[in-house]
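Reviewer 2 asked us to include a model.

Predict the structure of this chain.
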Amino acid sequence: MRREILVYPDPFLARKASPVAAVDDRIRVLVRDMFETMYAAEGVGLAAPQVGVGKRVVVLDVSPVDETIAPVAVVNPEIVWRKGSATAVEGCLSVPGVQGEVCRAESVEVRGMDERGNPLRIKAAGILSRALQHEIDHLDGVLFIDRLSSSAAVSAK
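Predicted model (structure tokens):
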């Protein structure tokens, strides 16, 4: 089922999401709905707070940019390692029509669980690294526009 994507300045987007205590059928339905919602909006990532759910769940499918990377859902994602820095233009389904340059770690390692509750570790670089950091920011109530430097160019799509 497609869910409505909250749009800035909705105050829910600024709230920190709670950890998932147990991966159950409700979480699996949420993950399925989030993938459906993300694909319908032509996004490459979506965090549960963007659909009004205050839980630490993200889904990503960066295959439109790198077809070698499979779609993934991460429950309770946590960045445990980061290296380097890279600046690139980002946009967000919750901030439609706006893009801006954001500096993020070039590579990250994220741990969490998959949608079945199994432990998961992802070592990522490039677009997957950027997307993971962007979506994990959502779980902490941070939008990409909060990370723009004062000199960063913001433009409409």
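The mean pLDDT is 95. Helices lie at 25-40, 126-139. We have added this to the supplementary material.
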